[in-house]
Protein: Glycosyl hydrolase
Organism: Streptomyces dubilierae
Amino acid sequence: MPPAVRFGVNYTPSEGWFHHWLDFDLDSVRADLDSIAALGLDHVRVFPLWPYFQPNRTLIRPRAVEQLVALADAAAERGLDVNVDGLQGHLSSFDFLPAWTRTWHRRNLFTDPDVLDGQETLLRTLAAALADRPNFIGMTLGNEVNQFSAGPHPDPDRATPDEIDTWLGRMLAACEEGAPGRLHLHAEYDATWYQDDQPFTPGQAARHGAVTAVHSWVFNGTAQRYGRTSVPSEHHAAWLVELSKAWAGDPHRPVWLQEVGAPAPLVPPEHAAAFTEATVANALDCPDLWGITWWCSHDVARSLADFPELEYGLGLLTNDRKPKDTALVLERAARGPSSTPAGRSTALVVPADPALRSRCAPGGPVFEAFFRLVADGARPTAVLDTRAGDPEHLAARGITETVTPDQVLEGGTRS
């Protein structure tokens, strides 16, 4: 019997947002965690800001590490497991990079030898500090670090896919060295799956680390193009889960829906609960789902300036820790009976060439074909064009039928 799907939340402190590390208040953190645990969730993903923890390449602040451990221990007291993002990185439109990588000390985040040494040391240190905590899930290398590697970032740290492959291997090895046997992974935003020139590739996402992580946001053009109640919007998270499986080496590799939220105004607050309910139900219909971690726990305080408007209201809970309707939806799912979804036997053929990823993005023919199948009542998954004729691969995944985008969109014959 496969394990039950995990339900959790990305922890955004109600007081001071992630700047709370500068004025760390364990009592406030405990109150936040109480409000999260009351929803029946089982884990939090936490974000130590890189410049606050490693302000100099050879200085990792011991007090900051102690505070991270204290947060993890407070979570354990409330029955919450903890995943820690190491290189923070990028959050809610703001970049948090240490001064020793910028301006006068400008060095590439993915290729500079000194930067790599500093990153490894931080990841190893954080992992080791938590290695003996039973509630420590493992490390995520950072939050959507691929946004630093290409446009539309205004000042990208360019790297080749081979250089990114080397970077991922080194950083995950550092996490493993610090905390052997834990669930260490990396996580990118959906440009990995949709942007043709992204050096972080789908194959890397689906093969490096213990699980594949996907981050689903319908403000990527999905809600704008199709509408908030459309099949693509309500199944977008499920699409990324199934799309990721096309590149996996393990036919049953777990997939973690590590970020998903209901962004206003594309999803107005009065419709957020319905969107949440549909998104969660559709994701739970995906086999091999490790967990759903909602973005985010608490609203951003209006006293903090310069956030994009949508960021202020994404919390399951208000800034004074009161649950919203979306929280109650997630609570029902977390406390409800678990079931194992049936396998998906129909596979849409997707291009293995990373230079054709935009075909899978909103408006692309692969994207359109997948949701045509869903609208027609099918439960499709995805298979690479290079594997679509491999009987052994198809059998291992339980695929009995393959169909190309052209066949779906033109009404042709399936195979």
Observations:
- The domain at 6-335 is CATH 3.20.20.80 (TIM Barrel).
- The chain has a mean pLDDT of 97.
- The chain is about 35% helix and 15% strand.
